[in-house]
Write a structure and sequence with these properties.
Elements: H1 10-18, H2 26-36, E1 40-44, H3 51-65, E2 77-82, H4 86-99, E3 107-110, H5 117-123, E4 127-132, H6 134-142, E5 153-156, H7 159-164, H8 168-177, E6 183-188, H9 193-202, E7 206-210, E8 221-227, H10 233-243, E9 249-253, H11 256-268, E10 274-276, H12 282-294, E11 299-303, E12 317-320, H13 327-334, E13 344-350, H14 355-365, E14 370-371
Parallel strand pairs: 1-6, 1-7, 2-4, 2-5, 3-4, 5-6, 8-13, 8-14, 9-11, 9-12, 10-11, 12-13
Bound molecules: adenosine monophosphate.
């Protein structure tokens, strides 16, 4: 299918073609006509599937068509995209500007952790499309720096993630302030019970669609794991980096303390890496992400939240130094590689402590992950093979 068949106008088609997109991905083929028709939508799609364009393209098409004669009033917005993290807000806003570069729409990313004054100043002129994190958004609304009476569209992006991060209260308070008449779009990697509950309170009569992660934009992610004793993990990682001559890897770890420790362990073996986590300033985080994107920085050790929103088309590999819980986080993480036409690999270092998480992940995947052995790293504490229908205690009825 061609982009031109989707009902998007020339300035948008031109921007998309200049970005090198030749055909719409599965989620784009499904979502774009639904959104253009004005319906509400609930979509199960992960990062890497092209989901951002699937809502941004029809949204800007509609806003642009209704633009003529429309004068934005001070502190008013026409579309609101709520994202879980500032990194994702920045990234989505940059997609909005890219896709809308031949249109006259304005956009802004707004998030916490930075001075609010420039953001307030910008809102004074009104903004067509605001991409914001929940806390700062609510704050601005409370301060009357922002009014929602002209809002036409609401997007909840990565809804499952926002719930995991405890934003449900803020989101509900924001939704209460929105005009009843609006289009609602919800995107989530998985549609869990909690997401369904949120969707019910925010969205009525939605069309539901779902794409699997094996869509056009995520061809093949090769997943494999190595079982290893916990105290040998950093030695094994150093060995893999050196022996397999990794060009670039995003290494996930559970805690910020662990991230800093791993960086120094790698350094002792002559391997240069940097750590990104919530304990580092926004400026440092942005610099690290930029260096990693440009390829100047080859190894980035990240806690899950810090790496959220990190979007690199040709990231060859992600490593789970620790296995995450819940299992959806694993899916999010591996979705960082193998994006938009390139292939990628996802490697997990699994010690006996990780066994429960491994069971949950493999149950979620519906298959066991291939195990590989690396010479020189015999395992003392054996990791058993998973039970695929494993249900964590907290979820048992
Ligand atoms: P997302 O799932 O929105 O995070 O997008 C994943 C990546 O796919 C981004 O880097 C987009 O630039 C890219 N992308 C989105 N749509 C397409 C498309 N139709 N063809 C090629 N790449 C795309």
């Amino acid at each position: 299918m061609a982009f031109s068949k989707l009902g998007l106008s020339d300035p948008i088609l031109k921007a998309v073609s200049e970005l090198g997109y030749t055909a719409p991905t599965a989620i784009q083929q499904q979502a774009i006509p639904i959104i253009l028709s004005g319906k509400n939508l609930i979509a199960a799609a992960q990062t890497g599937t092209g989901k951002t364009a699937s809502f941004v393209l029809p949204m800007i098409e509609k806003l642009n068509a209704a633009h003529y004669g429309h004068k934005l009033r001070a502190k008013r917005i026409r579309a609101l995209i709520i994202t879980p993290t500032r990194e994702l807000a920045v990234q989505v806003e940059s997609s909005v500007s890219q896709y809308g570069q031949y249109l006259n729409l304005t956009s802004m990313a707004m998030y916490g952790g930075v001075d609010e004054q420039p953001q307030k100043q910008r809102l004074l002129e009104g903004v067509d499309i605001l991409v914001a994190t929940p806390g700062r958004l609510l704050d601005m609304a409370h301060q009357r720096a922002l009014h929602f009476d002209e809002l036409e569209v609401l997007v909840l992006d990565e809804a499952d993630r926002m719930l995991d991060m405890g934003f449900i209260g803020d989101i509900n308070k924001i939704i209460e302030r929105l005009p009843a008449e609006r289009q609602n779009l919800l995107f989530s990697a998985t549609i869990s019970q909690d997401v369904r509950y949120l969707a019910k309170s925010a969205i009525s009569d939605a069309v539901e669609i779902s794409v699997s992660s094996n869509s056009a934009a995520t061809p093949e992610i090769e997943q494999w794991l190595i079982t290893v004793d916990k105290d040998k993990k950093s030695a094994l990682l150093s060995h893999l980096i050196q022996q397999q001559q990794w060009q670039q890897a995003l290494i996930f770890i559970e805690t910020k303390h662990g991230a800093a420790k791993l960086v120094s362990q790698l350094e002792k073996r002559g391997i240069k890496a940097q750590a990104i986590h919530s304990g580092r300033s926004q400026a440092v985080r942005e610099k690290l992400l930029a260096d990693f994107k440009s390829g100047e920085l080859q190894l980035l050790v990240a806690t899950g939240i810090a790496a959220r929103g990190l979007d690199i088309d040709e990231l060859p590999r992600v490593v789970n130094y620790d296995l995450p819980y819940p299992s959806d986080e694993y899916i999010h993480r591996i979705g960082r590689t193998g994006r938009a036409g390139s292939s990628g690999e996802a490697i997990s270092l699994v010690s006996k402590d990780d066994f429960k998480n491994l069971c949950a992940i493999e149950s979620r995947l519906g298959h066991i992950i291939e195990r590989r052995e690396i010479d020189g790293f015999p395992v003392k504490k054996v990791v058993p093979v998973s039970i695929l229908n494993f249900v964590p205690k907290s979820k048992r009825k």
